[in-house]
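Exercise 7. Predict the joint structure of the components listed below.
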Amino acid sequence: MATDGTNKDLLIQFIEDVWNAGIVDAADKYIAPTYTIHHDPGDPWDGMTLDLAGYKERVTRSRAPFPDQRFAFQDLLATDDRVAMTWRWVATHKGDLPGFPATGKEIRMSGATVYYVRDGLFTGHWQVTDRLGVYVQLQQASEGTR
Amino acid sequence: MATDGTNKDLLIQFIEDVWNAGIVDAADKYIAPTYTIHHDPGDPWDGMTLDLAGYKERVTRSRAPFPDQRFAFQDLLATDDRVAMTWRWVATHKGDLPGFPATGKEIRMSGATVYYVRDGLFTGHWQVTDRLGVYVQLQQASEGTR
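Solution:
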């Protein structure tokens, strides 16, 4: 069974490789064959269980409007079967979103996620993000480009 | 130094007493003489450091529109100096909010909080809540009462 430290390191490496660097196929090393988005209000996959191909599709589509996105870690707490992560995120709005064509502006977000771990792979997450904050920034950015 | 289990139990008791039951003076047992709201977008005290009286004022004013509010715990992870908590919240909208007079409707929210602990007292928190979800519910509840 993985130690606490190992799960924390696993999460850091996963976020860096898959979500920050955008190496989508690196998900093979981190994501279980079935992955459940237990709670993630505003995420198009909220409540769904994905296979690995579905997870990679989620990464690709989520990153497309924000290709230079970076998660920075605030707090990390781990047990042998889960890791809690609070985070800040920054990205340039380079691709279109529903209602918000690309603005080229910097967007910031914060959130918190618990990742569930089994046998060294992530099996799902429970997440809340400050999507009202993002919405307000996108509105302001859109006004600035009109 | 407190064990992990102790900090988890401390947080559960604090939330039950102060935020769920609304026993504001119970904050004396849980809150440090200075308490910092490190990050809490949408909270009127975001970024502020409060004394105990200020903290109690925050509890009183935050609970006023939602006097029957209940936090339910999703995940709890603890170390010797912090506790991460993911949660769901439900309350009846019984008091006025800016732009939203009391509707009597049930409002649901979710969020995640890291509480920082020193010598058995909470010294601050870092929190994200799904405030867009709350905003949408308040709008719908207000339309229903018009």
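Discussion. Chain A touches chain B through 26 residues (CB under 8 Å).
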